[in-house]
């Protein structure tokens, strides 16, 4: 396969290009087809009227472009990067969404731990609860452990209500998005502290 490169020349008449071999690519480079002459005696291509108007054809073997990764190609073309966390400053809606997914993973881990424990441990769950009670932990430490274990449940519940309402087409205005985020944080704190005190 060959490129046909037409060098910068001056033409005084229209030219029709024909490609007889489909394996060849015709690539004209900066042709001047106007034939007009300015006051300086040169046409817009920079050729004066005295020069002949022939064209020069150079055959070069086809060289495929070098292989580049997606990011290298975009950077060489100065394309903007897709938005992600290292570009945009963290916003409240984005953080609530990320924490919603994290708490979902934690709750799934709790469920798997409880299910596998009930299936594969030799004694029932009550035995291990009594073992934990026999450690005689202090009340402040038990309070902190209850908060750590309870926050994922409560936050995922209240923030999940927001997601369900968004799917129903409600609370999609920006003021509602921020207001419901604040309310879900407050509800999470209140309900978690309530269950931790029990």
Automatic annotation (TrEMBL):
The chain crosses the membrane at residues 102-121, 141-158, 178-197. Signal peptide: none annotated. It comes from the Eukaryota. Its main location: membrane. GO terms for cellular component: membrane; mitochondrion. The keyword DNA damage does not apply. It is found in: Membrane. InterPro entries: SQR/QFR_C/D, Succ_DH_cytb556, SuccDH_FuR_B_TM-su. One of its GO terms (molecular function) is metal ion binding. Coiled coil: none annotated. One of its GO terms (biological process) is tricarboxylic acid cycle. Keywords: Heme, Iron, Membrane, Metal-binding, Transmembrane, Transmembrane helix. PANTHER family: SUCCINATE DEHYDROGENASE CYTOCHROME B560 SUBUNIT, SUCCINATE DEHYDROGENASE CYTOCHROME B560 SUBUNIT, MITOCHONDRIAL. This is Succinate dehydrogenase cytochrome b560 subunit, mitochondrial. It comes from Euphydryas editha.
């Amino acid at each position: 396969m060959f490129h046909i490169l037409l060098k910068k020349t001056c033409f005084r008449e229209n030219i029709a290009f024909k490609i007889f071999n489909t394996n060849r690519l015709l690539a004209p480079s900066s042709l001047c087809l106007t034939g007009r002459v300015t006051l300086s005696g040169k046409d817009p291509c920079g050729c004066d009227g005295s020069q002949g108007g022939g064209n020069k054809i150079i055959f070069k073997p086809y060289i495929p472009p070098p292989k580049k990764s997606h990011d290298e190609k975009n950077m060489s073309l100065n394309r903007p990067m897709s938005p992600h966390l290292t570009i945009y400053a963290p916003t409240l809606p984005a953080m609530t969404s990320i924490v919603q997914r994290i708490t979902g993973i934690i709750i799934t881990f709790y469920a798997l731990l409880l299910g596998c424990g009930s299936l594969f441990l030799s004694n029932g769950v009550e035995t291990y609860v009594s073992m934990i009670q026999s450690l005689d932990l202090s009340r402040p430490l038990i309070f902190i452990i209850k908060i750590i274990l309870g926050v994922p449940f409560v936050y995922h519940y209240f923030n999940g209500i927001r997601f369900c309402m968004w799917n129903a087409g409600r609370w999609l205005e920006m003021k509602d998005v921020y207001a419901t985020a604040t309310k879900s944080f407050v509800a999470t704190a209140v309900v978690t502290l309530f269950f931790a005190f029990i």
